[in-house]
Structure formats: structure tokens, C-alpha cells
Specification:
Layout (H helix, E strand, L loop, with lengths): L5 H11 L14 E2 L6 E7 L11 E11 L7 E7 L6 E4 L7 H7 L7 E6 L20 E10 L1
Antiparallel strand pairs: 1-2, 2-6, 3-4, 3-5, 3-7, 6-7
């Protein structure tokens, strides 16, 4: 079999590039729940009310950010917020919202204020959300669980 042209070999070598380098882990201490397949709940103010279960309706106030690990709080560009627009009411755990919310909010209690750190596979994945969220973007949501019905 003939050898591939040197231009092709050079292109393949460029594609390989250097190995990925990961930034050092954030050493700050937070109270967090165990990571649940793509979402980590970081509690800032504990709640004392009910914990929602799948199929219940929840009332939430939230602000969403693109995750940016170069920022001290990992919050990059804000892409959405219910603040000033009115609380968000949704049936949780049944696929009406991204999977990171379905998994994360069901770990919270009414009155709790938390940050949901959501990997892209539990957010909008490879498709992203045109004009707002790029493909494969990790997300950060500041969330307050106000009510469960």
C-alpha cells in the first residue's frame, strides 16, 4: 500500500495537537450534595421546606450563566433570568426542563438558595441553544426554590 502524502501526514499531526491541560481544581469549600450524573448542587442557604419529587410543580427564581472557569465564581456570560420577569413555574422531573434542573432541583428543599453546576450533557448538549448557548457549554444556575405543589 502506498504511503500517504506528506501534506496529509502533517495535517494529521496538527490535528493531534498538544494533550489537553486541565485547570487546577477550585480549592474553595462549599456545602455540596453528591454529584448526580452531570449536576452538582452547591447550597448557599439551606431550605427547611419540602423536597420536590418527580411530577410535582415547583416555583423557582433563577439566573443562568455560561460556565467560565477563568472567573472566581465560574459565572461567565448571563444568558437568562427570571428576576424581574416573574417566577418560573414548571413540573419537575418529567423532562419539561433540561435534565440538570430535573436532577438538581429534586435535591433541594423549599427556601433553599443554591447554585446548580451543570455539565453540557445535562444541559443543551451538542446542539446548544441558538443565539444563547453554544454547543457543549457547561452551565451555572443560581436557583431559589420557592414553592412545591
Amino acid at each position: 500500500m502506498p504511503r500517504p502524502p506528506s501534506a496529509l501526514l502533517a495535517s494529521v499531526a496538527r490535528l493531534r495537537g498538544p494533550r489537553l491541560q486541565f485547570p487546577p481544581a477550585d480549592r474553595r469549600t462549599f456545602q455540596t450534595s453528591a454529584s448526580k450524573m452531570g449536576v452538582n448542587v452547591i447550597t448557599h442557604q439551606p431550605g427547611t421546606g419540602a423536597t420536590p419529587t418527580k411530577g410535582q410543580t415547583v416555583t423557582i427564581e433563577y439566573t443562568g450563566f455560561l460556565k467560565d472557569t477563568s472567573q472566581p465564581d465560574n459565572k461567565g456570560k448571563k444568558f437568562d433570568s427570571s428576576v424581574g420577569r416573574g417566577d418560573f413555574v414548571v413540573k419537575i422531573g418529567v423532562g419539561q426542563v433540561i435534565r440538570g434542573w430535573d436532577e438538581g432541583v429534586t435535591q433541594m428543599k423549599v427556601g433553599e438558595k443554591a447554585t446548580l453546576d451543570i455539565s453540557s450533557d445535562f444541559g443543551y448538549g451538542a446542539r446548544g441553544f441558538t443565539g444563547h448557548i453554544p454547543p457543549n457549554a457547561d452551565l451555572i444556575f443560581d436557583v431559589e426554590l420557592k414553592k412545591v405543589q
